[in-house]
Amino acid sequence: MRIAVDAMGGDNAPEAIVKGSILARDEYNVSIILSGKENEIKKLLEKNTSDFNNIEILNAEEVISNDDKPVMAIRRKKNSSLVKALNAVKDKEADAVVSAGSTGALLAGATLVIGRIKGIERPAIGSLIPNMSGGFALLIDSGANVDSKPEFLYDFAIMGDIYLKKVMNMSSPRIALANIGSEKTKGDKLTVETYNLLENTTLPLNFTGNIEAREILQGKADIIVCDGFVGNMILKTLEGTVLELMKGLKKELLSSTRTKIGAAFIKPALSNFKSKFDYSEHGGAPILGVSNTVIKAHGSSDEKALKNAIRQAKICCENNVNELIEESIMRR
Amino acid sequence: MRIAVDAMGGDNAPEAIVKGSILARDEYNVSIILSGKENEIKKLLEKNTSDFNNIEILNAEEVISNDDKPVMAIRRKKNSSLVKALNAVKDKEADAVVSAGSTGALLAGATLVIGRIKGIERPAIGSLIPNMSGGFALLIDSGANVDSKPEFLYDFAIMGDIYLKKVMNMSSPRIALANIGSEKTKGDKLTVETYNLLENTTLPLNFTGNIEAREILQGKADIIVCDGFVGNMILKTLEGTVLELMKGLKKELLSSTRTKIGAAFIKPALSNFKSKFDYSEHGGAPILGVSNTVIKAHGSSDEKALKNAIRQAKICCENNVNELIEESIMRR
Question: Looking at the predicted complex, does its ipTM rise above 0.85?
Answer without folding.
Answer: yes
